[in-house]
Specification:
The chain is mostly helical. 80% of the residues lie in helices and 0% in strands. It contains 10 helices and no strands.
Length: 266
C-alpha cells in the first residue's frame, strides 16, 4: 500500500541523509558563495517553485538540476563568482546518471534472470521472493535518495550558522531538516509522479520493477559516495530504459518520455 511505502521511505530517507548526506552538501555549497540567509532562502524557494510546477505536471524531474540552476542564476544576478570546475564535475555526473542506471539495469536483468532459471523454484515462492526483493530495493532506494539528495534541500544553508550551530552539528541539523522535508514531499506530492514512472512510461511487472529500483538505488548511492547530488528521477528513467533494451521498445510509451525529457531541459 502507498502509506506502507511512504512510511518505509521516510525512515530510510532520514537514515541515509544523516549517515551519508554531508558529502553532497560540501559540493553544493561550494558552487558559489551564498553569503547570507536571504540569498540562501531565495535559492531554496526558486528550486521549490520549479520542482512544484513540474511535479503538478506529473513529471519526474531533477531536484539537483533545479537547485544548481537556482544557485547559478542567483550568482549571475549578484555578480558573484561561480566555481566552474566544480560545476563541470556536477554536470558530468548528471550525464552519467541515466546512462549508468541504464547499464546497471541491463546487467542486473540478465544476472537475476540467469539466477532464477538455475533456482527452478515454484511460481508462488518466486512471487514471495520478488515481493520481499521489491521492499528491500525500495528501502535501499530511499536510503540512497536521502544520502544523495538532501544537499539539494538544505545544502545552500551550510556555513550560515543556523540556530547558532557550526561544523558537524550544523551539518547534522541541516541533514535532519532536509530529510524530514523530503519525507513530507513523499507523503503529499509523490503519488502522481509514481504513476508516470510505474505505469504511463512502461508497464513494469514485479521482476522488472525490482530490477529498476535496485539499479536506481545503486546508481544514486554511487554518486552519494562521490559527493555529487544527482537526479534519482533520471536514474529511475535510465533504469527503465535499460529494461526496455532487453524487453523491446514496442511497449515503451514515447509520449510521456518526451514530456519527461522536456521537463529535464526546463
Amino acid at each position: 500500500r502507498f502509506y506502507h511505502a511512504a512510511l518505509l521511505a521516510t525512515i530510510f530517507i532520514i537514515v541515509g541523509a544523516l549517515l551519508e548526506g554531508a558529502a553532497g552538501m560540501h559540493t553544493l555549497s561550494g558552487l558559489s558563495k551564498v553569503g547570507d540567509l536571504s540569498t540562501a532562502a531565495s535559492i531554496s524557494v526558486s528550486t521549490a517553485i520549479a520542482v512544484t510546477i513540474l511535479t503538478i505536471m506529473k513529471l519526474p524531474i531533477s531536484t539537483s538540476q533545479s537547485a544548481v540552476g537556482a544557485i547559478i542564476g542567483t550568482a549571475l544576478a549578484k555578480s558573484t563568482s561561480v566555481n566552474w570546475q566544480s560545476l563541470v564535475k556536477v554536470v558530468l555526473c548528471w550525464i552519467g546518471t541515466p546512462i549508468g542506471a541504464m547499464i546497471v539495469s541491463f546487467l542486473l536483468y540478465h544476472l537475476f534472470s540467469q539466477l532464477i532459471k538455475r533456482w527452478k523454484i515454484s511460481f508462488i515462492r518466486m512471487d514471495g521472493y520478488l515481493r520481499l526483493g521489491m521492499i528491500a530495493a525500495g528501502c535501499y532506494g530511499a536510503y540512497a535518495l536521502g544520502a544523495n539528495n538532501v544537499a539539494n534541500v538544505t545544502g545552500v544553508f551550510r556555513g550560515l550558522h543556523l540556530f547558532g550551530l557550526t561544523g558537524e552539528k550544523e551539518i547534522l541539523m541541516l541533514t535532519l531538516i532536509g530529510s524530514v522535508s523530503i519525507s513530507i514531499g513523499v507523503w503529499t506530492f509523490s503519488k502522481r509522479v509514481m504513476m508516470t514512472v510505474g505505469k504511463s512510461l512502461y508497464n513494469l511487472d514485479a521482476f522488472t520493477a525490482f530490477i529498476a529500483v535496485l539499479a536506481q538505488a545503486i546508481t544514486v548511492h554511487f554518486y552519494a559516495w562521490v559527493g555529487v547530488p544527482v537526479s534519482s528521477s533520471q536514474a529511475i528513467i535510465g533504469a527503465v530504459i535499460g529494461i526496455v533494451m532487453v524487453r523491446g521498445f514496442d511497449r515503451l510509451n514515447k509520449k510521456p518520455l518526451m514530456k519527461i525529457l522536456g521537463g529535464w531541459i526546463a
